[in-house]
Amino acid sequence: MYTEVQRRVYSLNYRIKEYEQKIAEIQKRIPLVHGDREVEVLHRLLDGDSMRAIGKRMEIIQ
């Protein structure tokens, strides 16, 4: 049981580190975002939407 708890804690910590890295990368690129559509795409990406879903929602693809 201890091993399973350790595995889950490690898995959770790994996911948190991945999210922190993604957020840090986005924060570095925020000055490069211009325009309402780009901001909307960024917000949708942060919400977890896929590129395909964003394209459909914004009527870029069908």
Name its key features.
mainly alpha, 3 helices, elongated
Structure notes:
The protein has three helices and no strands. With 62 residues, the chain is an all-alpha fold. It has one domain (2-57).
> What is the mean pLDDT?
84
Count the beta strands: 0
Give the biggest beta sheet: none
What's the number of helices? 3
Percent range of helical residues: over 70%
The domain tally reads 1
Low-confidence stretches: none
How far apart, in Å, are the first and last alpha carbons?
49 Å
Strand content: under 5%
Radius of gyration: 17 Å
Coarse morphology: elongated
Give me the secondary-structure category.
Answer: mainly alpha
Q: Layout of helices and strands, plus pairs?
A:
Elements: H1 2-29, H2 36-46, H3 51-57
Structure summary:
The protein is mostly helical. The protein has helices spanning 2-29, 36-46, 51-57.
